[in-house]
Amino acid sequence: MTSSTGFASACDADYAVASCYRSIDRDEGMEIQRGFFGEVPSLPSKYFYDRVGSELFDAICELDEYYPTRTEASIMRESVDEMVESIGPAGRLIEYGSGSSLKTRLLLGYMHADVTYVPVDISGDYLNQVAESLRRDFPQRRISPIAADFTRPFRLRSSTASQARDVVYFPGSTIGNFKPAFAATLLSQMRNQVGTGGGLLIGFDLQKDPAVLEAAYDDRRGITALFNLNLLRHLNRVAGGDFDLEAYRHIALYNEQEHRIEMHLESCREQAVSLVGRTRTLAKSERILTELSHKYTVDGFTEMAAASGWKREQIWTDANEYFAVGMFWA
Ligand code: AVI
């Protein structure tokens, strides 16, 4: 295992076996440092997703309280015909942060046989495994994975099908995990990638009763708490941290002004913590911000998309109006 920062030397010896993810690079080390040693300590949410964190996230998706996954799945099942018709004969379906590509299987089953599926994910090994399994299950489809961190600009190969358009698929309300200014940057990046005439099929979570939201991010079984704490364990392994996992408490609160869930880890005592080669002291009850999850209105999201060059074509929601899937054109 190599690292340009030398943080890897502080990792557990079993890292290579225990995680299918790579170690951090210099930019990531700087990003961690800026957040954790800033005035209000924060940690990048992407470190939730090592192997244990991905399994915990799968468990979250099954929780009674966590409505987004099943609600989006039901919207997709209900309206997949309309979505596929609206997409038309796309040349490529490009999925940002494809992970297990589970949600895409439904779409792929219905889409035109000539479509090329381009899953984009940071975890190259996992991406290739998923691509192999998709090739077995959809032998007529071309599967063309790209290992990339979609939060940074990356290059798509140029399309071989000159007539057909490219469509970005971004399900799961992951867009909500970015501050609106960065969400708008990502939407512009997608718009530039597909060019004029390209499309965007995107899932986003809607504003609702704060009690429903807080329960979704602070479930009775404590799975979300484990998911939150696992971020510290992951950073202990890849960024030379020495967080004591017993000394933090999971907090999830809805910020009504900013329309977002904020997840924190609250320090149960005063303690010194080392990370990326530096040390800071956390006071008793001081909180580390670990995740934001923005909730939109359909009009608010449409406005943000319009400012990034997207015109709304259609929005599908569930009966409670908890979640939305939108089709937009460039
Ligand atoms: C991945 N993302 C859309 C989830 C969300 O709802 O914001 C992450 C999550 N965090 C806690 N529970 C789920």
Q: What's the overall average pLDDT, rounded?
A: 90
Q: List low-pLDDT spans.
A: 1-21
Question: What is the rounded Rg?
Answer: 20 Å
Helix content: 25-40%
Strand % is: 15-25%
Biggest sheet details: 8 strands, mixed
Structural class: alpha/beta
First-residue to last-residue Cα separation: 42 Å
Bound molecules: N,N-dimethyl-L-histidine
The quaternary organization reads as single chain
How many helical elements? 10
Order of helices and strands: HHHHEHEHEEEHEHHEEEEEHEE
User: Any idea what the shape is?
Assistant: globular
Number of strands: 13
Helix/strand layout:
Elements: H1 15-18, H2 26-36, H3 51-61, H4 67-87, E1 92-96, H5 102-110, E2 116-121, H6 124-137, E3 142-143, E4 146-147, E5 166-170, H7 180-194, E6 199-205, H8 210-216, H9 223-238, E7 248-255, E8 260-267, E9 271-275, E10 278-282, E11 287-294, H10 298-307, E12 311-317, E13 323-329
Parallel strand pairs: 1-2, 1-5, 2-3, 2-4, 5-6
Antiparallel strand pairs: 6-13, 7-8, 8-11, 9-10, 12-13
Helix pairs in contact: 3-9, 4-5
The protein binds N,N-dimethyl-L-histidine.
The site of N,N-dimethyl-L-histidine has 11 residues, from strand 11.
Report on the structure:
By secondary structure, the chain is an alpha/beta fold. Helices cover 36% and strands 23% of the residues. It has helices at 15-18, 26-36, 51-61, 67-87, 102-110, 124-137, 180-194, 210-216, 223-238, 298-307; strands spanning 92-96, 116-121, 142-143, 146-147, 166-170, 199-205, 248-255, 260-267, 271-275, 278-282, 287-294, 311-317, 323-329. Strands 1, 2, 3, 4, 5, 6, 12 and 13 form an eight-stranded mixed β-sheet that branches. A three-stranded antiparallel β-sheet has the order 7-8-11. Strands 9-10 form a two-stranded antiparallel ribbon. Helix 3 (51-61) runs antiparallel to helix 9 (223-238) and helix 4 (67-87) packs parallel to helix 5 (102-110). Residues 1-21 have low confidence and may be disordered. N,N-dimethyl-L-histidine is lined by residues 60, 68, 172-174, 176-177, 217, 224, 291, 293.
